[in-house]
Amino acid sequence: MDKSSQSQDFELLTEIAIAYYCDEVTQEEIANRFGFSRIKVGRLLKRAKEEGIVEINVRYHPVFSTQLEKQMQERFPISRALIALDHNDEDEQRRQVAALVSGYLANNLRDNMVVTVGQGRNVAAVAEYTSPIQAKDCRFICGIGGTHRTGDVINADHISRLLAKKFGGSSESLYAPAYVENPELKAALMRNGTIKETLDRARKADIALVGIGDMNENSYMVKLGWFTPQEINDASLHQGVIGDIAGYDFFNAQGKHVNTVMDDRVIGLNVEELRQIPCVIAIASENTKAMSIMGALRTGAIDVIATSARNIRTILSMTQ
Question: Sugar-binding domain: which residues (predicted)?
Fold first, then answer.
């Protein structure tokens, strides 16, 4: 098709789309107007969506999530479920979930509150989400050490700094690696005064912001070199591990802790310590994480879950 024909084609699709979606002209009336069959009009409207001429957005409505949230509250020990509309694009889905968490924080943060910050893409998306927010005199503290990856935006320290900038508060770094080679090295680092004091403050936080991970060969921990693909397979197939909270505390489908090679090698807050924090917000936007979310909820450490409607519906169907 030459450029002239293509331009005329787009003009026709646009004209038909405007008539149907904006002027509320019926497909039958459009067919009569253009001399097409009603079936052809339907095909042209479909093409208009495929070509990007028409974009359909469904407005978020509180009634949509209220019923799902109520069912979740009846089945799990949570205070809130922040449920985003489904989106096929993973990045956009993550942004939609992050928007809900950002709004929740904006409504619930108060001056002098302390927020413990975890790592991962979903937690980072909350910090990166831009919206008008009233400044709060809060303190954001890393709840896990850092990783050495140049330009990595999913480190807890980077996220903590972004959150402090976003909400107008301050940030405290945890001057330690997230992962060490053996338990002896971890024990030595945990005796360090600077590390100990930061983690003590993180344990006493009012809110914790963490991610939920699943077990697969493409996981964040494999990319960091913490796990080999074989170790991931062994943990999931032979030990029943289905996910993790905060990047390393692993659990099975019943929400029970499972010992792995990561035990006593990560410098950060564990599930038992998270349970002591009044409000733990866990985020998992990916549609592959329904099983992991269910296990995480059963740990009893989560107060607010933020995810997609698709994940929520899957979880509800699995727990009927």
Answer: 62-317
Q: Which residue in this structure is represented by tokens 């469904």?
A: 58
Q: What is the pLDDT of residues 117-139, one digit of tens each?
A: 999 899 999 999 987 778 889 99
Domain extent, residue 277, equals 62-317
Phi, psi of 115 (to 5 degrees): -120, 120
Other beta carbons less than 10 A from residue 181's beta carbon:
9
3-state secondary structure of 130: coil
Note whether 34 and 121 are same-domain residues: no
CA-based nearest residue to 172, from 131, 136, 143, 151: 143
Pick the closest to residue 127 from 115, 137, 110, 111 (CA basis): 115
For the chain, the domain total comes to 2
pTM over 0.85: no
How many contiguous H segments (helices) and E segments (strands) does the chain have? 14, 9
Instruction: Classify residue 91: in a domain, yes or no.
Output: yes
Bridge partners of residue 139, in order along the sequence: 114, 170
State the CATH number of the domain containing residue 209.
3.40.50.1360
58-112 pLDDT, tens digit each: 555 556 678 899 999 999 999 999 999 888 899 999 999 999 999 999 999 999 9
